[in-house]
Amino acid sequence: MREQSLSGLRILVAEDEFMIASDLARELADAGATVLGPTASLEKTLQLIQTEAAIDASILDINLQGDMIFPAADLLQERGVPFLFATGYDGSVIPRRFEGVGRFDKPAGNGVIALALREAIAR
Amino acid sequence: MAEAVRTFDWSRTPLGASALWTGDLKLAAGGVLDNVLPAMLAWGPGRTTIVNDGFGTLFGAGVSGLGRTLADVWQKAWPAIEGASEHVFAGRPRLVEDVALEGPRTALAVQPRYTVALSPARTLDGTIHGLVATLARQAAPLASNAENGFRELMAGFAQAAWETDAAGIPIWSPTWHAFTGLSNSMPAIDGWLAAVHHDDRDDADRRWREALVTGESVDIEFRLRRAEGGWAWTNVRAVPIRGPDGTIRKWFGVNLDVTRRKTAEAALRDREAELARVQRIGGIGGIKVDVRDGLMGERSPEYRRLHGMPDEKTRESHAEWLSRLHPEDRGAAEQRFLDAIAGDACSYENEYRIIRPSDGAVRWIYARADIERDADGKALRVVGAHIDITDRKRIESELRDSEERLLRTFDALPVGVGVTDQTGHVSRLNPMMRRFLPNAVIPSRSPERQWRWRLPVNDGQSVRPENFPAARALCGEEVVPGLEMLYRDDSGSEVWTRTSAVPLRDAAGAVIGAVVVIADIDDAKRAEETLRESEELLRRFGEASQDVLWIRDAETLQWQYLTPAFEKIYGLGVDEALEGDNFRNWTDLIVPEDRPMALGFIARARNGEQVAFEYRIRRPFDGGIRWMRNTDFPMFGRDGKVESIGGIGQDFTDKKLFEERLRGEEERLRLALESGRLATWDWDIASGRVEWSDEHYRQQGYAVGEVAPSYEAWRARVHPDDLDAAEAALVAARDGRQLYACEFRTLHPDGTIRWLDAQGRFFYESDGTPVRMIGVMQDVTERRHWQERLQILVGELQHRTRNLLRIVRSVADRTIAGSADLATFRESFLDRLDALARIQGLLSRLGDHDRVTFDDLLSAELSAMDDGSGRVVLDGPKGIRLRSSTVQILAMALHELATNAMKYGALRHQGAQLSIRWWRGEADARGRPSLNIEWIESGVPMATQDIDKLERGQGRELIERALPYQLDAETRYELHSDGIRCAIALPVSASNLTREEDHA
Question: Which among B84, B821, B879, B932 could disulfide-bond with B94, CB atoms 3.0 to 4.6 Å apart, if both were Cys?
Fold first, then answer.
């Protein structure tokens, strides 16, 4: 079952656009995941990462209300949490240290995100 | 007898020739000869005798008393005389009585007896040089009578005769008193002194008193007053008369008249003074050298002066004289002197140098003297004169030098010079002349050598030998400067000569010979020919030259030479150009601005400097300007002065115009590059020399000219991070023969960083060696900035577009969820898309730093709905700027509120009212100013189904969930029975905006 593919996973979502964030959260929830967040600012994201004991994966919008998300990405990488970048930008703004990080363009089609997340976790 | 004395040959005697006798001798001799009594004089060391007639008769005829010796002349009486004579020579006069003479009168029965008075004969200085003997015949032996007779006799030849007692008191002196006129009334020891001349008195008194004490006989001379007036010189001779016991009984004296002698002595002194004066005037030093006295010499004042001796040194020894002689002359001069003395010559001459003691000067002395000899020829004295001949010697020496020089000059002359007599024989000729006239005969008189000489053929007629220069000079003509003649020498080749001659004349003006000069002018002649040829060559060059050549006189600056090219360049004929003051005329052709400069250069050439200068002339016939380039150079004469000025003038007008055009093009290119801010470089790789344009310096942060352009200077200002890439690109372009194109940063010393875009190209030799690189460089910092900016903008655009699509998708989802049918969906969906489109329109119109204000947003949303009926009340300040990231979601929320108001609320129902109020609120915890909005609808009859729809509607979700989530807003949404009441408080843009707010 496609919907069950993320079941039991705790997925952190950082997305400042309310409608996108709520759609994404619903989609993940439909896939069986527990959504942490979503968070609309870098500050809240960092806070959440630091307070949440278990994070299985994360989807990060690169730009949250003008702040680049990379400090949060660094923190996740430190904790060994796999994550994906969701962005409208091309790759050039992403620092090299995140070269291998998976990325999908918004809007992504049904199931694409879940698939990408699974790949990231499996790596 | 005086005659006999004069004629006697005295030169054989020790007295020497009578002409050389001293004054003393002459005086003494005179006294004897004049004596009335028989008298004789014996003089000099040889005691040579002179006798008077009286003396001679006593000894008989045939026996001469002249020039004999004392002992000899007295014959048998000598023993009686000898002892007394010794006393006399010691200064003590003696009387010898009863002297018998053996003479011619021996036949007489009674031999007469004589009293002989012997007294010394002195020289002026008082020394005794001789003896005078006077004889008186004694009377009969009767004493008293004899005495009386003796007295009378005395009175006969003396001035006076007298007697005193032993104490000197006069006893008898009638003749003395008669002579002096003094009375004898009171006889006293010093009574006689009253008649003695005052100047002589003390001496006379003293000596008389001394004699009275010593008993020595008296010999005193002094002046005595005559009774008749005047003074007479007297010689007092007195002898003591002693008794049988030897004591002095009385004194007997006579006064002899010596006035004549004294006068003669005075005259002699005068003459000697005169002689000294003459010597001084004539520069003649007098000497006397006494050969017998160890060569002791007497020196006259002038001699002492000439010899630089101290004035008091009147006498000096032979050694002293010798020490003064110049060492080089000493031996020879002394030998000559000694030889002269030792020989038999009566005169002596010598020349030698002395070192004058007074000043150390070396002087030449000429000495000439007589040598007095005795009868045996033995030298007695040398008397002579010295003169200083230094000046004469010097002149002689100079004359000798000058003659020597003249002679050498004559021999060394580089021309042949000879003096010929009338016959053509050359008596005096120098070595050069011997070359041409080896037989010392002039060619015209020397047929066998004539063939060697010819004149250059003149009008086809050869010149005859009688017209040769020397022949003409012998006819009285001056052939100067002479003729050029060809001389064929022994090798057969001809030599050019110049032969000149002038006649020599005697005092009467008759020609007695000629001076002939033959100069070898062959080299000069040949050089002249060569010069003529080279001048001809130069002339041809000059005429063929495109450049105008000229020579000016350095003094007048007038042209002496001007080539035909002048006409081509100046358009003025050469003849015309040379007319009048041609320097002035030429100067006038120069354009006035260039004239002082050109004249300045010519002045420098005139001062000996080579100059090059450019100037313009205006061609007189067409007014055309020609550009001239001149090289002027000084030409020096033999004296080293600038004689003339050479000039080479080149017309380079065409070149000049081309240069100017080129310069114009260069200038244009430069301006183009400058206005395009293009820096250029030109790198000569082989030499490493690089040229930069000014812009190149500026682009790399150098002041123009601050450094010498070089690869290193370029490299030094390339940003270290870009250097490797920039140099690698350079190498790649060079080796790959590609265009070089590289962008790199430059780092200026002040820290400024600029991006430069350099593009260049290498050039290669045929063998592939790169030799040169030329390129341009441009500051592309701005362009890069905009590129980066564009990149960001593009990214932003993609981001927004994708976000927007995502939102559209989401909106579509939600609209579907809230739509009963497709028509409703269509209406709602399009309405929402329109709202999104409006917001995008607002946002897209904004510039970088513009912001959408809340009132703009509100009016954009409400403009379509507000019908102007007054149902809508807006109340709030304008110009509250919204953060761009908040605009879309806020606009969507307002749109939902407005749509709901139209569908169900205040805008749908008559009588209902919508009041929107907003104001600036307090800053929030993060210091962000806030905007408070109140949306209050009233008088709305709220239907239940409407309320139901609103409660589930998008508007409520947006306000209650989306705004807090997305904008950190605080919201309230209430459905009241008369309408919706909604409040929103959200952070807005601070006045000081940052760029990050534009993102997202």
Answer: B84
Rg of chain B on CA atoms, in Å: 78
Per the structure block, which two tokens stand in for B987? 């952070």
List the single best residue of B797, B799, B890 to mutate versus A (max A Cβ within 10 A).
B799
Q: Is B338 on the interface with A (CB under 8 A)?
A: no
Cβ pair A35, A13 in contact under 8 A: yes
What residue ranges of chain B have pLDDT lower than 50? 105-109, 140-143, 992-1000
Has residue A112 got a pLDDT over 80? no
CA distance B962 to chain A (A): 5
- Interchain CB contact of B494 with A (< 8 Å): no
SS (H, E, C) B386-432: EEECHHHHHHHHHHHHHHHHHHHHHHHCCCEEEEEECCCEEEEECHH
- Distance from the Cα of A64 to chain B's closest Cα (Å) equals 7
Number of domains in chain A: 1
Q: Considering only CA atoms, which of B129, B145, B146, B128 is closest in space to residue B137? A: B146
Please give the pLDDT value at position A86. Answer: 81
pLDDT value at residue B460: 58
* Tokens representing residue B128 in the block: 């005794």
Cis status, amide bond into A38, omega within 30 of 0: yes
User: By three-state DSSP, how is residue B40 classified?
Assistant: strand
Mean pLDDT (whole number) for A63-68: 82
Put simply, whether A30 touches B (Cβ < 8 Å) is no
pLDDT score at B868: 64
Structural domains in chain B, CATH included, are 1-138 (3.30.450.20), 283-395 (3.30.450.20), 413-525 (3.30.450.20), 545-657 (3.30.450.20), 677-779 (3.30.450.20), 849-998 (3.30.565.10)
Task: Tell me the C-alpha to C-alpha distance, in Å, between residue B991 and each of A64, B736, B805.
Answer: 21, 57, 32
**What pLDDT was estimated at residue B155?**
63
d(CA B610, CA A100): 83
| ipTM for this prediction | 0.89
CA distance A118 to chain B (A): 22
B715 touches B723 (CB < 8 A): yes
DSSP class of A96? G
Token pair listed for B916: 């929107």
What pLDDT, on a 0 to 100 scale, did the predictor assign at position B997? 40
Which range marks the domain in which residue A99 is found?
A: 3-122
By the CB < 8 Å criterion, does B962 face chain A? yes
Q: Which of B238, B242, B233 is nearest to B254 (CA)?
A: B238
Q: Which whole-number Å values give the CA distances from B21 to B285, B301, B405, B972, in the listed order?
A: 20, 22, 51, 183
B798–A89 C-beta distance less than 8 A: yes
| Contact (CB<8Å) B1000/A18 | no
Distance from CA of B921 to the nearest CA of A (A): 22
Q: How far apart are CA B27 and CA B136, in angstroms?
A: 22
Q: Is B803's CB within 8 Å of A87's CB?
A: no
Residue B523 CA from chain centroid, whole number: 39
**pLDDT at position B184, please?**
66
Among residues A51, A52, A46, the alpha carbon closest in space to that of A74 is found at A46
Q: Do the beta carbons of residue B121 and residue B35 sit within 8 Å? A: no
**pLDDT at residue B437, rounded to an integer:** 87
Q: Which residues of B touch A89 (CB under 8 A)?
A: 795, 798-799
Q: What is the CATH number of the domain that holds A9?
A: 3.40.50.2300
Nearest to B616 by CA among B660, B564, B558: B660
CA–CA dist B156, B149 (Å, integer):
10
Of B795, B800, B961, the CB nearest to A18: B961
Cβ-contact B325, B354 below 8 angstroms: yes
Nearest to B893 by CA among B959, B814, B969: B959
B-proximal residues of A, 64-123, CB under 8 Å: 64-67, 87-90, 92-93, 105-107
